[in-house]
Design brief:
This protein is α+β, with helices and mostly antiparallel strands and 120 residues long. It is built from 2 helices and 8 strands, in the order H-E-E-H-E-E-E-E-E-E. The longest helix has 21 residues. It starts with a helix and ends in a 9-residue tail after the last strand.
């Protein structure tokens, strides 16, 4: 399946997920689009917040013009991937652009918090 088709399916899944209870995320991985329920805990959200805060404090000196945020999708169309990390370091200007995704080539760093149960 080509990436444009996978992206269209992912967008349809996003629309579908908006009507579901709970928190859902859509990503495109090696096997294609995936709709998965997430259970963000207070601890996980606190960890993401603390990491973002630490990174943000260092960016003005190390990478002016970049910011650490959560939310944007990271897209690598050539590899057929669309991911939503817990936090990404991207050019601040990217936040003023249309769309939901930022190209992977523009991402300085991505943070994904794994749960202890997901490691086994």
């Amino acid at each position: 399946m080509d990436y444009a088709t996978m992206r269209a399916i992912a967008e349809d899944l996003e629309t579908y997920a908006e009507r579901l209870e709970g928190t859902w995320r859509v990503e495109i991985g090696p096997s294609g689009p995936v709709l998965a329920m997430t259970a963000p805990s207070k601890r996980r959200e606190g960890t993401v917040r603390r990491i973002r805060k630490q990174v943000e404090s260092q960016l003005p000196a190390t990478h002016p013009g970049f910011t650490c945020v959560n939310g944007p999708l990271v897209e690598h169309a050539a590899r057929g991937r669309l991911r939503r990390p817990d936090a990404v370091v991207i050019p601040e200007a990217a936040l003023d652009e249309d769309g939901l995704a930022v190209e992977a080539e523009r991402v300085l760093a991505a943070v994904e918090i794994t749960s202890p149960g997901g490691l086994g």
